[in-house]
Write a structure and sequence with these properties.
Strand content of chain B: under 5%
Number of domains of chain A: 1
Order of helices and strands of chain B: HHHHHHHHEEH
Shape of chain B: flat
Distance between the termini of chain B: 26 Å
Distance between the termini of chain A: 17 Å
Order of helices and strands of chain A: HHHHHHHHHH
Strand content of chain A: under 5%
Largest sheet of chain A: none
Structural class of chain A: mainly alpha
Largest sheet of chain B: 2 strands, antiparallel
Number of helices of chain A: 10
Oligomer: heterotrimer
Chain lengths: 201, 260, 523
């Protein structure tokens, strides 16, 4: 397996199949936490951390526990519990070791449990069939890389969108369009722009 | 005098009325519509609303999960220690989602394929967790069911509204029977004259734009209502002031008359 | 403590209940889900073969086609096969199913999945493909969805190819079948060497084996619409007569009349005394005339030559703009062009009259020609002009062979040798051209042996080996062998350590040259 595979995995999950704009995952935090660039970055960092770890763990759980036992149909419930406890763990961990980091990320962590991007990417890794394409163990690395790329993509659009919204706040928009409506249309235009990256890989 | 009171109603009066079961149901459809008012569950609202059928299907699944989890949560709310409320609710919701997923795959396979990853993602739909913690854990089973159905229907209607708009704009037709397990397949409003085929509405961009447009429309309606209400209130205040002034005047006249 | 126990217990009960509920629903729906999943796979098949009752799928290892499904009807009779292929074009991935019936017809071609623009791929005229015979598929090139359609075309072609392979169908042409009857399995392919116009035979074929060396020459003719092939060795010995495998048996009676001739040289056959099918007798007479005073040439563009009092007449054959052109180049004894004649052409008359024929004289007196310059002569009729120039250049290149200055060598390694003159024009010795296997591919060498039988120079004329290796290990060390009259394997191993396989090819070349030179160099 060449490095190219990882490069392609990052590019395609970050830009081409962008979680927010193409796969509609994590739209709630995308709209909710993107009012300020600062909080957008904080949220993205927290998402990146949890998404990569969650993908890694859920992939292992799926292929080394659920599949051998033959209960892959409970993957949803298993994954969400893993993610919930993972978030709890990470919160405890950060709280204990870095007060500063906790101040920065801590408030976003509880929100992440209901961020469908995490569960969506974890489920997507399985649906994508990395294990059949590359073998179970190699697939793990591709899946994790791809999750990292997805998180980068999430961060990228969060950052871009928050910057746009900060400017939108100071723009004279018709009263009915003020706030979310115009933001959503902006997001639609962003999605159109990302559509153009489709032929890249 | 009595005529005057009838002409201008007190706009605050309605709130004092006791909420009926119907109100409990109806609030989810309009006043507390999960998508257009609370912006909950936007992911599926964007992802599976490219046709009316998928939107409807997703809506039905959400109604089921929401009602069932609301019921169970309201039943077990007293047995669950506060500390593990959230994990326990997650397990309950995830269980129903898994069940719904299995049933869909067995009895509505096309719908299952079309909704794909968004069936398991019902688990993290903020709407369901939100209702479980905010309503079902504080109310009885019957009210919880009503609340679940109402919220679910509101969610479904909103989804369908987006779905029908997107499907018509994109294809000029509405198709039934392609995804839902219906014994027939039929296209409504299928006009060959339609030549725009705006495929952007099938894709992600169209989803965002469509919801944005609807939000703007509802905001405009809301603004209009607010303005009317404010006007009504203003009119009521004016009326009261006038009445008071009249009363004062009459009193003064009466006093004057008495003294006279 | 009690509180924690209560928490654990509650979680356990909740988990158990939820697990139980899920397992219950799972067992209830398991079969149906399995069935649905299988059905979903088969649904597309059903669309192609409505009579399908069951299918047997297998994954195949192929770049484009990844699945083959045998389709059976209700009586378990195979009614066709479906091949699934993927391609990625500029607009995304596309998956195509190609259904082929057992009667070698395309049943239907279906786009089962694609990211291509729906409006385009939906308008593709795929229904035109249905019902076409697999050996002659006409694709509709007037489609508005070129990218998608190209993918469909490619996948369909591969599917048909694989289908033939799986059905074990003889893909040999009827020509090859006939040739293999005459020359045996060794006949690997043939080159249409020359086509005749309105003669007793149609085409002269050069029959080659898998190493592309000539097994012989064959000529074909029609008898009642059936292909009949006459085969000869390179020395014009008659080898046999045959038709393709599916021809009617009555031809074998016809052929029987000529069996006695097998092993005879063509010039020894008394054509007038032959009895039997007149067409075949005519063919013999024609071939006899043809080979009587001409010799064959085994070069690209050249067919044969004949010697005249003034020099040589070389006949060449090249593809022009529209069709084949036959050109005769007359060379003097000194190798100068004295005449060029366009014997036959299928190209447009106007072109030939206006641009070709007036210019043919321009080459008279030339003995060396640059192809690019020569092409300018025929500006206006480039296609035909190019074919003529190809023949002229090839004829001039062949002149040294005719004059004896260049001698073709029949040898594993060596190709030819010619006199070698240095820059001052003094005769040094003989240059040997040969080919030997290197690490990656064949290397072509020029080795000059001087009059004392020693190596005068070594040059690598053509190679596919890695340049770094050649520059670092081979070329600097070639000098070591200059002046040698004998080369051993050990010496080359030492000299070319680091590039042993290419070094071996140098050894093969040098030893072959020295050996050949010592044995027959001075005849």
């Amino acid at each position: 397996m060449s490095l190219e595979v990882f490069f392609v995995a990052i590019i395609s999950s970050m830009l081409i199949n962008n979680v927010v704009l193409m796969r509609f995952l994590g739209v709630c935090p995308f709209l909710g936490v993107s009012k300020k660039t600062e909080s957008a970055i904080g949220m993205s960092a927290a998402v990146m951390f949890v998404m990569v770890v969650a993908s890694f763990v859920t992939y292992l759980l799926y292929y080394y526990v659920l599949e051998p036992v033959g209960i892959t149909y409970i993957s949803t419930i298993a994954f969400i519990l893993i993610i919930a406890s993972l978030v709890q763990l990470v919160e405890m961990f950060i709280k204990k070791f870095s007060k500063k980091l906790y101040k920065g990320l801590g408030i976003y962590l509880p929100l992440i449990v209901t961020n469908c991007a995490i569960l969506g990417v974890a489920e997507g890794n399985i649906a994508q069939g990395y294990a059949t394409d590359y073998g179970v163990l190699s697939g793990l690395w591709v899946a994790t890389t791809s999750a990292f790329g997805a998180a980068l993509g999430f961060g990228l659009v969060m950052f871009l969108f928050s910057a746009i919204r900060e400017r939108l706040d100071h723009t004279d928009v018709p009263p009915a369009w003020k706030g979310l409506p115009v933001s959503l249309v902006t997001a639609g235009i962003m999605a159109m722009a990302f559509l153009g990256l489709g032929g890249m890989v | 005098m009595a005529e005057n009171k009838k002409a201008v109603k007190n706009p605050n009066q309605k709130k004092k009325k006791k909420a009926t079961q119907f109100d409990n149901f109806f609030k989810g459809v309009v006043r507390e519509n999960p998508i257009f008012v609370f912006l909950l569950g936007l992911c599926p609202a964007l992802a599976v609303t490219n046709t009316l059928e998928t939107a409807l299907g997703m809506g039905v699944l959400v109604i089921f999960v929401l009602t069932a989890s609301n019921l169970v949560v309201s039943l077990i709310k007293n047995l669950i220690p506060d500390q593990i409320q959230i994990p326990a609710y997650i397990v309950v919701i995830a269980t129903f989602v898994t069940i719904v997923g299995l049933l869909t795959e067995a009895y509505a396979f096309e719908l299952h394929q079309a909704l794909g990853i968004f069936i398991p993602l019902i688990v993290v739909n903020c709407l369901i967790m939100g209702r479980a913690t905010a309503y079902a854990s504080k109310n009885g089973p019957f009210n919880s069911i009503i609340d679940g159905v109402g919220m679910g229907v509101g969610f479904m209607l909103a989804m369908m509204l987006i779905g029908v708009s997107r499907e018509i704009l994109a294809t000029g037709a509405i198709t039934f029977g392609r995804y839902l397990p219906l014994p027939f397949e039929v296209s409504l409003i299928d006009t060959d004259m339609y030549m725009f085929n705006m495929e952007v509405f099938v894709g992600p961009a169209g989803g965002f734009i469509m919801i944005g447009v609807f939000l703007a429309i509802f905001t405009a309606i809301g603004n209009y209502n607010k303005r009317k209400k404010a006007q009504a209130r203003q009119a009521w205040i004016e009326q009261k002031k006038k009445e008071a002034a009249e009363r004062k005047k009459r009193k003064a006249m009466e006093e004057a008359g008495d003294s006279a | 403590m009690l509180y924690k126990l209560k928490i654990a217990l509650t979680l356990l009960i909740v988990g158990l209940l939820s697990g139980g509920a899920i397992v219950f629903v799972h067992t209830m729906t398991e079969d149906r889900i399995q069935e649905n999943r299988e059905l979903a796979e088969l649904e597309d098949y059903q669309e192609i073969f409505p009579d399908m009752a069951s299918a047997e799928e297998e994954d195949i290892d192929h770049d484009v086609i990844d699945r083959r499904a045998k389709i059976y009807d209700a009586d378990d009779e195979q009614i066709g096969e479906i091949y699934r292929g993927h391609d990625t074009n500029n607009f995304g991935d596309i998956t195509v199913l190609v259904g082929i019936t057992m009667d070698f017809e395309i049943k239907q071609v279906l786009v089962s999945q694609t990211e291509n623009t729906p409006n385009y791929y939906q308008d593709m005229p795929l229904e035109n493909l249905a019902g076409q015979a697999t050996d002659d598929i006409t694709y509709d090139t007037n489609t508005g969805a070129t990218a998608s359609y190209n993918s469909v075309e490619m996948i369909t072609d591969y599917a048909v190819e694989l289908f033939y392979e799986f059905q074990d169908v003889d893909l040999r042409s009827s020509e090859l079948q006939a040739l293999q009857t005459i020359y045996g399995e060794a006949a690997d392919d043939y080159i249409e060497h020359f086509t005749f116009e309105d003669e007793a035979v149609h085409t002269e074929y050069r029959v080659i084996d898998e190493n592309e060396s000539t097994l012989g020459y064959a000529y074909d003719l029609d008898i009642d619409g059936e292909l009949v092939m006459l085969g000869f060795t390179p020395d014009d010995e008659f080898l046999g007569i045959a038709s393709d495998d599916d021809s009617h048996d009555d031809l074998s009676d016809v052929f029987a009349d000529f069996e006695d001739l097998e092993g005879d040289m063509i010039e020894d056959i008394d054509v007038d005394a032959l009895e039997g099918e007149q067409a075949i007798i005519d063919a013999f007479a024609f071939i006899q005339d043809l080979v009587e005073d001409t010799e064959r040439i085994e070069e690209e563009y050249l067919v044969r030559y004949r010697e005249t009092d003034e020099g040589y007449v070389i006949t060449g054959f090249a593809e022009g703009f529209n069709a084949m052109n036959v050109i005769e180049v007359t060379l003097s004894d000194d190798g100068e062009i004295t005449d060029i004649e366009l014997v036959r052409t299928d190209d447009t008359d106007d072109y030939v009259e206006d641009y070709i024929e007036p210019n043919l004289d321009a080459f008279d007196g030339e003995s060396d020609l640059d192809a690019d310059d020569a092409l300018d002569t025929f500006a206006g009729a480039t296609g035909t002009g190019e074919s003529i120039v190809n023949v002229i250049v090839a004829a001039l290149d062949y002149y040294p062979v005719l004059s004896g200055a260049l001698e073709m060598i029949d040898h594993d390694v060596l190709n030819f040798r010619e006199d070698y003159y240095d820059d001052e024009g003094d005769l040094i010795g003989l240059l040997y051209r040969g080919e030997a296997e290197g690490f990656n591919a064949t290397n072509v060498f020029d080795v000059v042996i001087d009059e004392d039988g020693a190596i005068y120079s070594i040059e690598i004329v053509e190679t596919n080996d890695t340049e770094e290796y050649l520059d670092d290990y081979i070329i600097p060390n070639l000098e070591d062998f200059i002046g040698e009259t004998d080369v051993t394997q050990d010496e080359t191993d030492d000299a070319f350590a680091g590039a042993s396989e290419t070094g071996d090819s140098v050894y093969d070349m040098l030893s072959a040259t020295l050996e050949y030179h010592a044995e027959g160099g001075d005849e």
